[in-house]
Amino acid sequence: MAAAAICSIGYGCGVKNIHLSFLRANTRPICRRVYYNSASFKHLRCSAENRRVFLKCATENTAHTDEESGENISRGILVWRAIKLPMYTVALIPLTVGSAAAYFQMGRFFGKRFLILLVSSVLVIAWINLSNDVYDFDTGADKNKKESVVNLFGSRTGPHITAWILLAIGFSGLGFVATEAQSRLPILLLSFSILCGYVYQCPPFRLSYLGLGEPLCFAAFGPFATTAFYLLQSGMREVPVSSTIIASSFLVGLTTTLILFCSHFHQIDDDKAVGKFSPLVRLGTETGSQIVKLAVAALYSPLLFLGLSQALPFLSIVLCSLTLPAGISVVNFVQENHKDKDKIFKAKYFCVRLHTIFGAALATGLVAARLFARKQLPHTILL
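Given the sequence above, the corresponding structure tokens read:
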């Protein structure tokens, strides 16, 4: 609740008058010490001191305002958080990188398949988000999570039914493309990917409560989903799986897993209360911040090797290296704010930005290498 307070201080030494005016009658004064303790006025001896005290008062009021705004977040902001629109990049990036790898390898791209796969993937991610809110509500993990869909709408039935309808539609779209491609392996890999999402959050498994969410996330979005999209976009029944798609799926899986890991920083207390032993519950935020640093290092350190071994084209290596500042910003933000529950909430958005631009750089390099470089392609393994 914002307040405006104006201090009118007379010229010269001492204070002639101090007037406080407020936008609302029930708003607290800028500085309660100045408001209640008139004796402190004697210490204001010059205009420089006056300005210093006023700035201190304003700082106190800003902190109070931020606290109130944190407690009274508007419903519009909560709905935006519940939609989790930035998180849907985890549907776009594996598909984009997989399609780019297929184009680099085979020189083919199917626009219609790409669009169907994109819409289907978004629906599957929506199922994951909605069902996760439902099942975390059941266990009490989202008791204090204001942006939970169940808490926002006051019912678990609607989101639960909607989630499974979205999954059915999304999986039908994936199956349609796999049937058109006349290939069974991609739909099998995508089924494994969805199965990872199910055992991650759904009863009776709930493997995320055992701290296994990150390995499942890596497998689902990396080797399974990215490789499946590569196979579907290649346009061949016997599809060559090269070192390019293996390396690409590893990198995509790593950036996706980093999003999930950082999303737990601000939920440690609630997770502990319901027995959800995420990695951060077990390790603590200090160790967790160091793991984020190691994960970002693991993302960039292999790039030179992947380039020299021709697993990835030189253009991909250069473009991915240019995203290093985004990786550094993730590390710096987490290390500076991992103890601040309110600020660390934004860490996952830093990771989403890294995931998006790194994936885009990787895909752009793959496509550009096919278009312009015309270099020798990696050796392939027939499946």
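Confidence is low (pLDDT under 50) at residues 1-70, 379-383. Try to locate this feature in the token string yourself.
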